[in-house]
Give the backbone structure.
Amino acid sequence: MDDPYDQYPEDTDRRRFVKGVVGAGALTGVVAPAASMIDSLTAPPGAGGGPTDYMGIEKTGGPAPRGMPQIPLEYDDEGNLKGIWPEVEMQQVGGQTVPIAEMELGGKLYSTTWYQYCGSQNNPAIEPDADLDNTIRYTANPAYDWQSNQVEAGDPVRAEHFSDYDGWGNVIGESGIGKPAKVTWRSTELEPRDRIPVQLIRSPLIEEAAKDDEWLEASTVDGFIAIHNQCTHFCCVPGYKDPGQTDAMAYGAGDSIYCQCHQSVYDPFTIIEQDFIALPRSD
């Protein structure tokens, strides 16, 4: 099975969770687009684009303009980990009736527009009304030895696979803060180019923070957190404690999600509200 993580080469001891809003105009390195440009991005035939608030991990270094969005999680009836996908409603947008998938979750408006960047707005997996499998499944050719040795590509993720999450470690960064896996969501049955890369981590830090954080309580389970793993800079696929990323430690990213292509760094243990201009879906 081809793996979306093979497209590109593949972690700050930060221990805080921040509640706040990072405005698009305040993001480092972002130039506010002209009104005409915004109109061209947000009022196309396909609709579904425009200013979008989302919950994502914090970008802490490098050229990326903002953090990558979080994918809310739950268990299905069989105990498999699955991503939450909102119910679809038909709404009037720009004079057209279009499908919109959004819901209230943990005090936030969760919407599929969170993932409409880096070409994902044209991905069939991101279409609001696409009837696809929401189970979180393992990829082929993962970066982690434990994943290669214990599970197969396409297997659903289960909590028992992460029973050692509070002590797991490898050659990158500190042990015991999070056990990672390379996974996909809503796209195992699609062509390799359309598979959504997701960084999954089970962490005692997430588990503890969710006890008194409304959003994390609603969007994480048993310390599992999932990130739409496409760098907001040039859409490369980053990694968390990836032993192939030999320069992560040099950039203070041993315990962060690190993009080897252009050295952007993200803190998976700091989840903040952010905003950006979501790209519109094609007609």
About this structure: The chain has one domain: 4-278. The mean pLDDT is 86. The chain is about 10% helix and 30% strand.
